Structures are given as structure tokens and as C-alpha cells.
Amino acid sequence: MWAYGDGDAVVRACWSPGGAGRAGSWALADPATGNAEGVIPAGEFSRRFRPVDVFADVTGFPTYLGTVTASDGSAQVDLVLDRNPFMLANGPQRAARPHVLTVPRKHRDGWSSATPAQLSACHGAMTLVAAWYRSLDGGHVVFCANDSPPNVDYQRDVEVARGNLAVHEADAATSRNPRQEVQHAHLHAFYAEEAATENHESSALTGHAVIAQGRQAFSDALGGDAVTIDGGASTIAAAIRAAARPWGGGYCSYQLGVDGPFSVMPALGSSQAEFNERLARADGLQAEPDPRLGGAVNLARPGLADAGRLRAARRATEQQRSSFETFVAQRGLNARSLPSA
CA-CA distances (angstroms) from residue 308 to 61, 62, 204? Predict the structure, then answer.
């Protein structure tokens, strides 16, 4: 279920077909407990509720880094730090490591439906982030996305609300990627150490030295059910859609570095489990079955409930924003208008 809001409250909701040419209805649930909160007819739902978009204005985030623009100056993708860093005390210097998200400005759906211009801007952002990570103690980057197909259920409901009763009735609801938590596509850029390094934060929790393997935990390709995708900005979106069709349109992606092979895989399959296990070894964290994913393997990342860790995360964000500003300034770039190529 995706999250929707009416200005006062937020609910989780899922559309169900009505059958016999009817427009169907929406089942509502409490976002915290999952308890049912009633049913709303199609058409009425979109008049009351809008999709919750946590990335609607990332330029106002305290973790905002910059924006990649097209040749005409139009904003394409934004760069923002994850507010919850995976690693806060790595190596002899106990350095915090960045975790950048690349967020499309207007295009909320996954890369499988992005335009060539948007994909080129994403590649420009990836190149810049990889260079920045490299400047931080020789770090490497691993890219990953958890994308769902477009939310055609809500788009259809908008048409029903407009009185377009001839809109095509689907046989089933659109499948959401269970690993995608927010209704706005974004690309993760995980920092990987150049060599094996102690994660002092994990060591303090376990009572013994925990070594983050870094880059050596990864390889160019994953085994299992991963599919390698070829093609440039003009063809890759169609190739992703074709590969993801058997999985309901949703997929996870994996790419080691900017120039490594690009793979997609089902969200709950063996390859995604392998990726999370590799990521855990690389970061000095744990990967374990997640009941929210039906027992599929997921990374167990540290949270921000502890006040001390929250303060440390905020200090790390300030330091990393300053580092990025210095990095782009030294290259004569404007963080608010970074080049796509």
C-alpha cells in the first residue's frame, strides 16, 4: 500500500477492481498499525487524497547537496544525503561515510519510465558522486534502486473523478515494490571503503572488532535471478521494462561504479538477498530475514532513535555538505546547476 494524505491525516490505501465494468474501490489502513479504516469508492478517493511525496521539495532539506540540470538549465535530478548514515565511525580516524540519494525532480516513477534526458542527468550525477567518494580516502560507490511501476491505479481514479467512465478497468491492482518505501523514485549511492576497515560503531555494539570489507565484498555481477541490461540512455528504459514485466513491473537494480554492468532483479529474489548480504559485509553491518518482506533478506541498518547517534548523524551531515561544497567549488562548478555530462 502507498501512503496518501488529505491535508490532515495520512493513510495507506490499495485499489481493488469492482468487476462488471465498475470502477472499484479503495481499502484504507492506518499507516502505523495496519488496521483497516474503511473503504472509499473510486473517483471519490482521488478527490479527497493525494499521494504523499516525501521528496516533493528536497532543495529545502537540511541534507540537500545540489541539482543536476539539462543543457537548457531545467532541473533534472537533485542530490541529497540520507539523513540516517549507514556508517558514522570508520577506520583509524573514525570517519563518517556519506550515503547520497539521486532524486528526479519531476519524474516520480522509476528509471524504467524515465526520458533520455533524465537518464543522462542521472548518469552525470552518478559520475560526480563517484568522484566525490573517491576523494574521500579512495572510496568506491555502489548504486542501487528499488523501483515500482507507475501508480496507474491512482491515475485511473483521477480519470474516474473527472467523469471519464470509459477509462479501462484493470483486472488487478498495480504491484508496489515492497522494498520501495516512498512514492518517489530515487537511486542509492553506497560508499564502499577502498580496503577492509574497522566499523567502530558496530564494534561498540557487539563488543568485538567488526571489519567492514569495503570494495572487496562486491563483484561486477550478481548470480541468481539478476538480469544484465545493455543499452544507452535512449534504450535502457525499455530494456528495464521488458526485464521487469514478469515481476509485475517492479525491480531492484545493482551497479558497481559508474561503468560497471547494470543489472535488475526481482525485489524478493535470490540476487537481491545476495546484494544485501554483500552490502552488510562491505559496511560491517548485518543482513537478516525481514518479516515486513515476508522473510526476505534485508540490511539491518542502525536507526536514529538514540539521541547520541542522532546528534552524530547531524554533525556528519554538516561535515559532508561542507565537503561536497568544497569538492564542486574546486572544480569550478555551481552546486545548484551541475552539468549532466
Answer: 21, 19, 14
